[in-house]
Amino acid sequence: MKLVELAGKKLAVSPVFTEHVTDDSCVLVFLHEALGSIGQWKGFPQQLCNALHLNGIVYEREGYGHSSALRKQRTNRYLHEYAWEELPELLDTILPKEKQVVLIGHSDGASIALLYAARFPKRVKAVVSMAAHVLVEEITRKGIAPAVQAYKAGKLEGLRKYHGDKTEELFYAWANTWNLPEFRDWNICEDIETVTCPVLALQGVNDQYGTSLQLDLIEKAIRKGQVTKTMIPRCGHHPHLEVPEQTEHMIAEWWKRNT
């Protein structure tokens, strides 16, 4: 892991290498969830890089893990800011401009992946979206309350292993922002219409933060790119952790068909 210095902040970046790379013109970039980090991906980045025979990069956004702390209060545009400001600056800093990326996003990270692919289509070869949010469903807001109760009860203390003294600020930056009145109308469907690359949209049938509506809206919004959507049975919000082998297999098979 290393710290990459950007304008006014540092981001933690960890490379993932695999043997027998078959295409050096692109790299997998893993985008974590709302309370995620490099470590919380567990072994999935290495597993997927090995399956696709591509190298990868895992990084932590501002406010997370080993990266710099949040510098300002979040608004309902925070995912756009990560997608259209931070991510392009990071990629332009650490990768040659001619190298394409395959974005592997989970939850917030999947929304960021779709937004980035819409704004920078030539840079993106493909997107794997796991449990993305493209609008706020009632189930999403209802799922936050139990998480807040669990945090107050000390049941989420494990997050401190990954985020240290940033944990409380980060947790409430997530919970409070999604509960903002102006977040009720948050919707990125029009923003992702310009995605042109292949997209694999995955979601667990038992996801407590979203329903199949999210996949349907992604498919409807992206008219120029080919969208493959799959609901995963017996799976909640974390396909890559709950059913990692199945998720890796679905991505690998889709990759073979679309590249």
Measured as a percent range, the helix fraction is 25-40%
Number of E-type strands: 8
Q: Strand order of the main beta sheet, please?
A: 1-2-4-3-5-6-7-8
Largest sheet: 8 strands, mixed
Task: Using the coordinates above, name the CATH class.
Answer: Alpha Beta
Average pLDDT figure: 96
- Low-pLDDT ranges: none
Helix vs. strand class: alpha/beta
The helix/strand order is EEEHEHEHEHHHEHEHH
CATH architecture: 3-Layer(aba) Sandwich
Strand content: 15-25%
- The CATH topology turns out to be Rossmann fold
Distance between the termini: 30 Å
CATH superfamily: Alpha/Beta hydrolase fold, catalytic domain
Work out the helix count.
9
Please tell me the total number of domains: 1
Shape: globular
Could you list some keywords that capture this structure?
single chain; 259 residues; alpha/beta; Rossmann fold; 8-stranded mixed beta sheet; 8 strands; globular; hydrolase activity; Alpha/beta hydrolase; AB_hydrolase_fold
